[in-house]
Amino acid sequence: MTDDTTTDGDAPRVVVAGETLIDFLPDREGPLQSVESFSRRAGGAPANVAVALSHLDETPAFSTRVGDDPFGDFLVERLSEAGLDAEFVQRDPDAKTSLAFVALGEEADRGFSFYRDRTADTRMEPGAVPGATLDAAEWVHVGGVTLADEPSRAATFDLMRRGREAGATVSFDPNARPELWDEFDFGDSVAEAFELADVVKATPEDLAELDYGDDPESTARAILADGPHTVFLTLGGEGSLVATTAESPWASEETVVSHGGYEVDPVDTTGAGDAFTAGVVAALVEGESLSETLAFANAVAAVTTTAAGAMTALPGREAVRRFREES
């Protein structure tokens, strides 16, 4: 699943850091209280991005922390099967692995109930990614969930700063999960992350409680004003858009590009946004245009929704190519 940019002996071009957890998928649609049984899947937004990148022949260095427990064993096995180096996976002997129970709606939309009180991913430590790895990287990606707790909060901001100092493009996904925020303010945390990020990927729903505009284009422009030079917004069935400042390396002036997405019959939308993120990163590190990047990332996300589970549904490049040819 790797190409000549990620074979043994070559440093990864991409670094991803953040939570890895267990998603428990329900056996039926409806509220959790009506579900009789669940199936276990590996999940966590940054983990999904990392595995998706590996499927897309851009295997990253993935820094995460899981419990030294059976669920942690399961996750380490799944990450290894995806080709991710265990060097960057920390095992925490004093904390459990995070769990998330998923509720599915009629349109394959999902809600989450988290079991994440002082779990291993809240205890990620600054400096876990070696300087040599960052020096070789072109891209560093992090998410917002690890900003809700210390010390993972400090670790995330530290990695973003170190990535910028090393000359990498730094991307951030707010991935709003309101139920996880009690120690820190989500809005202040997102604002600080936007100042440190070059690229932001978000949904309008992620920022619904913040003052970032009433429509996608105005939302993107408001985010740009806070620091990033490039903003991607995913819009569900309406596709996606990207907006840039003139400082973006992929545009010579302020630009807005959109893509209407693809028609699919969704089974489970869990991980679709993460698949989109991976598609964006994989395309841009290959030097693709913004329009091709949107088309590719939308296709990766669309294919992901056609099967259950976040990681288990992630496609490779050949599957994406066939999907685009047939769409």
Task: Walk me through this protein's architecture.
One of its GO terms (molecular function) is kinase activity. It comes from Halogeometricum rufum. With 327 residues, the chain is an alpha/beta fold. The chain is built from nine helices and 13 strands. The chain has a domain at 45-65 and 125-326: UDP-N-acetylmuramoyl-L-alanine:D-glutamate ligase (3-Layer(aba) Sandwich). Helix content is 31%, strand content 21%. The strands form two sheets. A nine-stranded mixed beta sheet has the order 5-4-1-8-9-10-11-12-13, with helices on both faces. It is globular. Residues 1-8 have low confidence and may be disordered.
How would you describe this structure in keywords?
single chain; 327 residues; alpha/beta; UDP-N-acetylmuramoyl-L-alanine:D-glutamate ligase; 9-stranded mixed sheet; 4-stranded mixed sheet; 9 helices; 31% helix; globular; ATP binding
What is the CATH class name of the domain at 45-65 and 125-326?
Alpha Beta
Count of extended strands:
13
| N-C termini distance | 25 Å
Helix/strand/pairing category: alpha/beta
Q: What are the low-pLDDT stretches, counting only 5+ consecutive residues below 50?
A: 1-8
Largest sheet: 9 strands, mixed
Order of strands across the biggest sheet? 5-4-1-8-9-10-11-12-13
Order of helices and strands: EEEHEHEEEHEHEHEHEEEHHH
Shape: globular
Mean pLDDT, to the nearest integer, reads 92
CATH fold field value of the domain at 45-65 and 125-326: UDP-N-acetylmuramoyl-L-alanine:D-glutamate ligase
- Supply the CATH superfamily name of the domain at 45-65 and 125-326: Ribokinase
Strand-residue proportion: 15-25%
Proportion of residues in helical segments: 25-40%
The CATH architecture of the domain at 45-65 and 125-326 comes to: 3-Layer(aba) Sandwich
Total of helices: 9
What is the radius of gyration?
18 Å
